[in-house]
């Protein structure tokens, strides 16, 4: 902790300072705004464990004019001392369900509703826009209120002559970030929770917040000139920290610009893919089509798809979640596959696989893909004579992931391996 931070946090004209965990102090329009206050010392908090206290305590932060609470149900976003700090503030903005639980002075905002706060600098009002967030996988099971994991609220702060600031909270959905980007004026600064939080009992351990690749993509979607990562330290359930986040959000103020207490702006993140590359440094995401002769059980079909994907993970170094597959079953007389003169007979166990990927694979890497897939299919009762594989190469301009846009070309998604 620096001497300046240990002595307290003086108000600044426009600044974002991350204190550790999710807690950020935002000085804007003469107001001191604190998001997701957590001030407890290290120790267990139910099923979560806090590993470090904040860089600055409540006394060092001083009185907040506004507290933003993304959600009140998880101690890593609102711990006991954080709750006391929140209750002492003149105004708290959060989601409707959280506001009902917290009581006064909390005000509940549904997504896309606004609340105006008089600025202390005489510049009129600060507008706080509540925006949607998904605290877990986009396809995760939703509760009776339609939420993944729990009710969750992000915020966009704006005002005349002020930078527009997006506070993501533990949002894990790039689709949601894209919607915010479309509906909100240009974002100047983004506070992104980027620790890839994981709890084994929830969604099979899939990330509950942005990982480094998703954070880089979110920053690119938003076009934010300043990116401040948060919620990647001080709790044991984060699966990514500075080594993963720094390549996605480059340093801006010294050797460790994103350690707790750093409030400097970051350059726009470089499009970075953090999975393990193959020998050529490429990690190009594949799209896979698998054609089968009808007659297999659903679990057999899934086993074939799983085996194929795992081979690509092992050989090409793609992330587990970079999985795009279409499996199609055909009547036997709709599939014709001879031996190309190699002198063997195929059977009704035939599996035909097409792998579409960006160009750059070496011949040796492709041969390893063929071998690995065949070896993984053999225990499933599929002999080598029934494994037919083709690799189709293309470029970054040949992909659209939705909304009729070429995300690689536009820089919305990082080009894999670059």
Question: What is the terminal separation in angstroms?
Answer: 35 Å
Biggest β-sheet description: 6 strands, mixed
Helix residue percentage: 10-25%
Q: Give unreliable regions as ranges.
A: 1-6, 250-283
Mean pLDDT value: 83
Protein described:
- This protein has 418 residues and is of the alpha/beta class.
- The chain is built from ten helices and 18 strands.
- It has helices spanning 3-6, 58-61, 80-87, 96-102, 174-183, 212-222, 242-248, 298-316, 363-377, 407-410; strands spanning 15-20, 23-28, 31-35, 43-45, 48-50, 66-68, 92-94, 106-108, 114-118, 125-131, 154-158, 165-167, 189-193, 226-230, 287-293, 325-330, 351-358, 387-394.
- A six-stranded mixed β-sheet has the order 1-2-3-6-7-8, covered by helices on one side.
- The chain starts with a helix and ends in an 8-residue tail after the last helix.
């Amino acid at each position: 902790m620096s001497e300046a931070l240990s002595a307290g946090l003086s108000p600044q004209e426009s600044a974002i300072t991350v204190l550790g965990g999710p807690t950020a102090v935002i000085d804007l329009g003469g107001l001191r705004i604190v998001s997701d206050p957590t001030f407890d010392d290290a120790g267990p908090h139910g099923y979560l464990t806090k590993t470090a206290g904040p860089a600055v305590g409540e006394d060092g932060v001083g009185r907040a004019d506004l507290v933003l609470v993304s959600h009140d149900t998880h101690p890593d976003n609102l711990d006991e001392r954080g709750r006391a700090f929140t209750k002492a503030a003149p105004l708290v903005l959060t989601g409707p369900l959280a506001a009902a639980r917290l009581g006064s002075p909390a005000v509940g905002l549904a997504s896309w509703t606004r609340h105006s706060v008089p600025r202390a600098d005489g510049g009129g009002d600060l507008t706080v826009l509540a925006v949607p967030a998904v605290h877990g996988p986009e396809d995760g099971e939703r509760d009776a209120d339609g939420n993944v994991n729990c009710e969750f609220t992000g915020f966009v702060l704006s005002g005349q002559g002020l930078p527009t600031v997006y506070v993501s909270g533990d949002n894990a959905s790039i689709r949601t970030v894209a919607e915010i980007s479309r509906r909100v004026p240009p974002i100047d600064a983004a506070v992104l929770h980027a620790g890839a939080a994981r709890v084994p009992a929830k969604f099979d351990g899939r990330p509950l917040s942005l990982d480094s690749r998703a954070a880089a993509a979110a920053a690119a979607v938003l076009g934010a000139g300043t990116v401040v990562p948060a919620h990647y330290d001080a709790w044991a359930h984060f699966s990514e920290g500075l080594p993963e986040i720094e390549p996605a959000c480059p340093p801006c103020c010294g050797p460790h610009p994103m350690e707790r207490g750093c409030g400097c702006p970051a350059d726009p993140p470089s499009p970075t893919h953090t999975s393990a590359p193959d020998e050529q440094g490429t990690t190009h995401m594949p799209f896979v089509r698998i054609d089968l002769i009808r007659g297999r059980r659903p679990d057999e079909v899934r086993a074939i798809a799983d085996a194929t994907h795992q081979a690509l993970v092992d050989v090409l170094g793609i992330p587990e979640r970079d999985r795009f597959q279409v499996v199609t079953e055909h009547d036997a007389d709709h599939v014709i596959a001879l031996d190309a003169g190699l002198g063997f007979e195929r059977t009704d166990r035939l599996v035909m696989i097409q792998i579409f990927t960006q160009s750059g694979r070496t011949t040796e890497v492709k041969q390893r893909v063929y071998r690995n897939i065949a070896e993984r299919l053999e225990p499933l009762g599929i002999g080598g004579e029934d494994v037919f594989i083709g690799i189709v190469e293309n470029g970054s301009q040949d992909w659209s992931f939705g909304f009729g846009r070429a995300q690689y070309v536009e820089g919305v998604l990082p080009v894999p391996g670059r």
